[in-house]
Amino acid sequence: MDHHEFRGKDIPHIELDPKMTIEDLVNVFASSGYNGRQLGEAAKLYAQMIEEDATICLTVSGAMTPVGFGGIIKTLIERGFVDWIVTTGANVYHEDHFAWGLPVKQGSFDVDDMKLYENEIVRIRDVYIKFSETLEEQDQIVQNMFENEFLDKPFTTAEFCNLMGKLSKEKAKHPERSFITSAYEYDVPVYISAIKDSSLALNLAVHRLQDKTYNLDFVREIIEQAAILYGSEKSGILELGGGVPKNTAQQTGPLLDQILKRSDGGQDYIIQITDARPDTGGLSGATLQEGKSWGKVQDAHNGMVTVYADATIAFPILVLYVLSNQKKREPKRLYKKLDGLYKKLSDDYFKNPET
Fold first, then answer.
1. 3-state class (DSSP) for residue 34
2. Which entry of 173, 296, 328, 336 is annotated as an active-site residue?
């Protein structure tokens, strides 16, 4: 569509009704302007991704699970609306607090952190976590989980998270309160590209000091991620924030095209919710449209929406919208298919590595 002509939908004189549904609200957003319109269009694009049975990746930067958003991710997994995940170590580590019944409280951001430190309270913005009852307890749990696992053999972070989900499901007090246990149950791969930058890796230090070696096969996992894209008829990403998780999912296109010469073309759809700016080096340095020049997306003009908003506000609206109008999908169970997807990509590459 040529956007340089005086064409388009009429802007309504919006009226709200107490009986409106989430679908009505999203239609209000979509018929308005600015980031309200972007949010409405993003919700509809997410529904389209589900309807077209696209393989959907969720990327989550920062620390969203301390505010309870792991429950939303869990619902998406169980509905079949997320097929693989790239996130930070913080989101996995703090999510496990809920599974094990460790205390996390609403606090305040307007505080004296010197006093919080004296009271052994750790603060994440306006969320409080107890130093001993929560963090130290969680540290012991993680240390026990991996004391004798993955020693002296290569592993990926998907394998790491899968085992963590398995053990939390079997031993935690409230396994139903964790998207990591749901990812294990539904065979959703969860990757932590910067695991070194998290408490998960810090807790391996006590074992490494006893000469136990952990060999993260980071190259295998980037190939697995590209293989997921390569093996999908349609593929999309829902990005909460930017950073390493965003780029990890998007670099699947350049690996296939630039490095392996597959001419795949990248993702069909991307939705990004962010408050960062590209002109200051934020937004991971790039708009979604710019990603076309790298082969990260199929089309620079279609199938992409960026919502400049707080993800804690926009993400629940997107999710509730698709929950209200999309039927549950059969899980793709990609975790159990990773070896086959990897082999398919490898076989095709070696058949003709320069085409």
1. helix
2. 296
Q: Which residues contact 149 (CB under 8 A, 6 or more apart)?
A: 163
CA distances in angstroms from 326 to 48, 106, 161, listed in the order given? 9, 33, 28
- Whole-prediction pTM value? 0.95
pLDDT in tens, 241-299: 988 999 999 999 999 999 999 888 799 999 999 998 888 777 765 788 888 888 888 88
Q: Where are the domains of the chain?
A: 22-88+139-351
The model's pLDDT over 52-93, given as tens digits with 9 standing for 90+, comes to: 999 999 999 999 999 999 999 999 999 999 999 999 999 999
- Is residue 198 within 8 Å of residue 139, measured between CB atoms? no
- The reply to whether 234 belongs to the active site is no
**What is the C-alpha to C-alpha distance for residues 259 and 255, in angstroms, rounded to an integer?**
5
Q: Tell me, which fold does domain 22-88+139-351 have in CATH?
A: Deoxyhypusine Synthase (3.40.910)
And the tokens for 217?
């096969």
* DSSP, residue by residue, 148-210: TSSBTSEE-HHHHHHHHHHHHHHH-S-GGG-HHHHHHHTT--EE-TTGGGSHHHHTTHHHHTT
Q: Is the dihedral of CA 244, 194, 84, 98 positive or negative?
A: negative
Alpha-carbon distance of 108 to 285, in angstroms, equals 32
Question: What gap in Å lies between CA 237 and CA 316, rounded to an integer?
Answer: 16
